[in-house]
Automatic annotation (TrEMBL):
Keywords: NAD, Nucleotide-binding, Oxidoreductase. GO terms for biological process: L-alanine catabolic process. GO terms for cellular component: plasma membrane. It catalyses: L-alanine + NAD(+) + H2O = pyruvate + NH4(+) + NADH + H(+). The lineage of its organism: Bacteria, Pseudomonadati, Bacteroidota, Flavobacteriia, Flavobacteriales. Residues 4-137 form the Alanine dehydrogenase/pyridine nucleotide transhydrogenase N-terminal domain. Belongs to the AlaDH/PNT family. This is Alanine dehydrogenase. The gene is ald.
Length: 364
């Protein structure tokens, strides 16, 4: 199979979907890999690194799409790429269709085979291709939140860890999944007081068992959320419904109950966001303020740490890329339930039930 690795062109997206080591594995299996020049530079891989492992280097993104049977990316195609996607071409990447009708309709019109990293589900019911980026994003949420709590950036002026004689900052985490647990771990490590809310008691018991005593668990309810937003400095939105839009747990009118300079970090922005006031931002302009509340809603947070993120992502995606390349998408999805769960749009037809619910699109 001819496999294409284009350079990511989303704002400040420096990750790459296949490393030189991945190229080596694919070439050894008899496949041809076409990499756009400069695709790996942001993650620390030179064109020469790719050439040495057998990749063919192409000068433009157009050439990569035109030459290949399967495109492997990190982020969803943006508008410029819509017309580059070919009929019957496999596109394997993070799509987050639920947050963009425009993207969904463009991929339907392309007649391509779209397999979404974020809905690939293994036998244990976990999301193996989303997990490493959720781990990165959860940890980054605290790193960024701590920064934007600083007064020069319009935050409350709170040091999360506090100092002797001064109490630590308070962090509220909505969701005890991978993002939430990683965020709680980082916040606790800084010395902050952490409250983590979820409706899944099994997850709350797990958090209670593995976290230090200054991480407190509570059942998530509108009442408890309204109670805690009044006195927490940093609020992390970390709720995921695979393939569907995230629920709006904090509404616009609830902002008035927060203290000025409170920081909201919405890690679920790719899926529409946990806050009603969420609007996707970029690393160029990461925050906005509504009612004196600082919002950080960058849609590709792990893109800011591409070296770490690329290695973490490709560790888990390469086995699936190999299956698709070795068997073809139909046989690979027939024999692998996890890959089959990632199928979203196939040759113009929606096959993911969640998209029907979100956009009322036709389902085969």
């Amino acid at each position: 199979m001819k496999i294409g690795v284009p350079k990511e062109i989303k704002n400040y997206e420096s990750r790459v979907a296949v490393t030189p080591a991945g190229v080596f594995e694919l070439v050894n299996c008899g496949h041809q890999v076409f990499v756009q020049e400069g695709a790996g530079e942001g993650s620390g891989f030179s064109d020469d690194d790719y050439k040495e492992t057998g990749a063919y280097m192409l000068p433009t993104i157009e050439a990569v799409y035109a030459m290949t049977d399967m495109i492997v990316k990190v982020k969803e195609p943006i508008a410029y790429e819509y017309n580059l996607v070919k009929k019957n071409q496999i596109v394997f990447t993070y799509f987050h269709f639920a947050s963009s009708r425009e993207l969904t309709e463009a991929m339907i019109n392309s007649k391509a085979v779209c397999i979404a990293y974020e809905t690939v589900t293994d036998a244990e019911g976990t999301l193996p291709l989303l997990t490493p980026m959720s781990e990165v994003a959860g940890r980054m949420a605290i790193q960024q939140g701590a920064k934007y709590l600083e007064k020069p950036i319009k935050g409350r002026g709170v040091l999360l860890g506090g100092v002797p004689g001064v109490p630590p900052g308070k962090v509220l985490v909505l969701g005890a999944g991978v993002v939430g647990v990683q965020a709680a771990k980082m916040a606790a490590g800084l010395g902050a007081h952490v409250t983590i809310l979820d409706i899944n008691m099994k997850r709350l018991r797990y958090v209670n068992d593995v976290m230090p005593s200054h991480v407190v668990t509570e059942f998530s309810s509108v009442y408890n959320i309204k109670k805690h937003i009044k006195n927490h400095d940093l609020i992390i939105g970390a709720v995921l419904i695979p393939g569907a839009k995230a629920p709006s747990l904090i509404t616009r009118d609830m902002l008035k109950d927060m203290r000025p300079g409170t920081v909201l970090v919405d890690v679920a922005v790719d899926q529409g966001g946990c806050f009603e006031t969420t609007m996707p931002t970029t690393h160029d302009d990461p925050t906005f303020i509504i009612d004196d509340i600082v919002h950080y809603c960058v849609a590709n947070m792990p893109g800011a740490v591409p070296y770490t993120s690329t290695l973490a992502l490709t560790n888990v995606t390469l086995p699936y890329v190999l299956k698709l390349a070795n068997m073809g998408w139909e046989k690979a999805c027939e024999q692998n339930g996890d890959l089959r769960s990632g199928l979203s749009i196939v040759k113009g037809e929606v096959v993911a039930k969640e998209l029907l619910e979100v956009f009322s699109l036709p389902l085969v």
